[in-house]
Amino acid sequence: MAVLETERLLLRPFEPKDAPAYAAIRAKPHVVRFLPGGEARAALATQVAETVIAMFNDCWQRDGYGPWAVEEKATGRLCGHHGVRCLPEEGGVTELLYTMDDTVWGQGYATEGGRAALAYGFDTIGLDRIFAWAMPDNHASLAVMARLGFTRV
User: In what order do the strands lie in the sheet with 67-72?
Assistant: First the structure.
């Protein structure tokens, strides 16, 4: 599994020890409101975190790429996930996906991680196309996608 480094972030494979910190992020209803299951799944954050970490690691095993844990280099703190993953259930398209802890919102981490993930997808893996999805009222995520050069369809 690849490790990417940006100016402020380390994008690395998830490890089992990340589960409590990742669950703490996913336990915040306002952080997960635009994720599948929305705010209701915040109550199940521990289960969800373990399941999602396993699913992300399975992506790496199945496809050779997948989402990373995002660690803030200055502090070593887990602050979310970022990456590209293949969606076999959607015909094999690859999506850019990310969730960042609210403690780092507004600092440009989603865009910084997105640039690294997209470069990895296009330049290292050789993908032709990467999609990103967001709910229409998720203005922050739509803004990140626009900064990364996505065209809204």
Answer: 4-5, 9-12, 67-72, 78-87, 93-100
pTM of the model: 0.91
Q: Which of 49, 29, 31 is nearest to 39 (CA)?
A: 29
The rounded distance, in Å, linking the Cα atoms of 4 and 2 is 7
CA distances 55 to 86, 107, 126, 142, Å, are 12, 28, 23, 25
Measured from the Cβ of residue 99, the count of other Cβ atoms closer than 10 Å reads: 20
Q: From first to last of its 153 residues, what are the pLDDT tens digits of the chain?
A: 899 999 999 999 999 999 999 989 989 888 877 777 777 677 778 888 899 899 999 999 999 999 999 999 999 999 999 999 999 888 889 999 999 999 999 999 999 999 999 999 999 999 999 999 999 999 999 999 999 999 988
